[in-house]
Amino acid sequence: MNSKSLIQIFLILLIITTCGALYYKYLYKKSSFTNQKQITISEKTKKKAPGNVIKDIEYKSEDGQGNSYTIRSKMGEFKDENSNLIFMTNVTAFMKLKDKTIAKLTSLNANYNISDNNTNFFNNVRLSYLNHNIAADNIDVFFRDSKVEAYNNLVYRNLDLSLIADKVEINLITKNSKVFMLNDEKIKIFKSN
Question: What is the pTM assigned to this prediction?
Fold first, then answer.
């Protein structure tokens, strides 16, 4: 090969590399949230009820950081045809975090938003995470923010203490939590013997 051919090949490769770099820098938009939703309805138990009711429903989502969220219920009902909200009954949810820990939530009812995965659990809500257990009237999960808020008749228990407060906010990534009362009362803490 002569030097003219080598220069031409080098220039063509340089142009292709430059175009590729410019495309990825300015035009290619990678989403930090990969939303993989999946409804699993068992064919054996698939029963159409009147209206917009689905039996044995499951949604799965995963974010770009490696956390996954699975929510299952015995029954889900779309209240409105254009709504992204599903009213669920007999609900169980699992949050598998990238550090391989799992948080389990159960409740009698929940409102699940299929567009952003935010879930409002209510009626006999229980949360188990490592050695921590929370019982409350309401627990809200903000999956994209990796945040959980529990409030109303909140009781927190771990291996050696119980705590009664109005509200707790938990960041599932940093493992930090904020516990507080909504009025001037003090948080009640009981140490187990």
Answer: 0.69
